[in-house]
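Supplementary Text 2. Reproducibility record for the structural model of the 95-residue chain.

All settings were left at their defaults, and a single model was retained for analysis rather than an ensemble. We include the record here because the model underlies the residue-level annotations in Supplementary Table 4.
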Amino acid sequence: MREMLPPLFSIATGLGFLMVLLVGTLARPAIRTAAGRLVAFGLLAVTGACFFLMQGTGASSIGAGGDMFLMAGACLFVAATLITAGLFMQARGAR
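Retained model, structure tokens:
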């Protein structure tokens, strides 16, 4: 099961970058606002977390990949913060 994790996170990273490209090309009017940009950068941070998880699970042990797991956690925290801020800005602007 452990051998399957790096390829799965690699696929998730690729799909995440594909979603970033799709949002950048198809939803361009939605990301012209500050709230839209925050959500888009949050999506990019989730993709970065998948990349760091891929690198961390590919290490020889959990201790060897510890730095990558910390970076993935930091990316997920940043993503949650950016997406939450973008949604709050959008909700305040809708009133």
